[in-house]
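Progress against Task 2.4 (sequence-to-structure conversion) is shown through the following example record, which the project officer requested during the mid-term review.
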Amino acid sequence: MPPNFLSSLKRHTHPLIWIAGIICATIALAVIIAGIVIFIGYVTIRPRVPSISVTDGHLERIRSSRTGLLEVQMKIVVRAENQNAKAHAGFSKTDFVLLFDGIEIASLVAHRPFKVNKMNYLDLHFLVESSAIPLDSTQMQHLSWSLKRDLIQFDLKGSSRTRWRVGVLGPLKFWCRLDCHLRFFPRNGSYIPTPCSSKQK
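Structure tokens generated for the chain above:
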């Protein structure tokens, strides 16, 4: 019979491997616990992203010269809204641009950060007064056609940065962005309400 050879050597796991394993297990456990806490906090608090929207406006004046210069004066009401029941919301870097037929007419800027209390809103009243804006021949035709049919459209683009604190979730930040059309009746300047909001659809 062939001889049986028994090895007396025993393999030992290096202590560094044990330490690395313990560290990895601890990190994994911490991540799982943090995920559970965040999930429970989210379900309990149900945080809502603050929003901005256009709620009203009025076209005070619109003039165009024979040389192709456009002058516009209007009022625009932008509403900052906070639907969180347990957190105030701060808004900063609020900046919009008003355009007609692709050309910039005026900037609408909130020069200071502002706060909206929980379950509340704040209306920002912008008075837009443009200088004499030169239009090309195509833009002049669009303007003339809009005035004749008594319906004119402007574009409003911009954003505002929001920040609010939600319990265990900590401080949250989000950019509210607007990219919408504003329509008016030039004859009496009245605003035609249209959806214009940063709310997620």
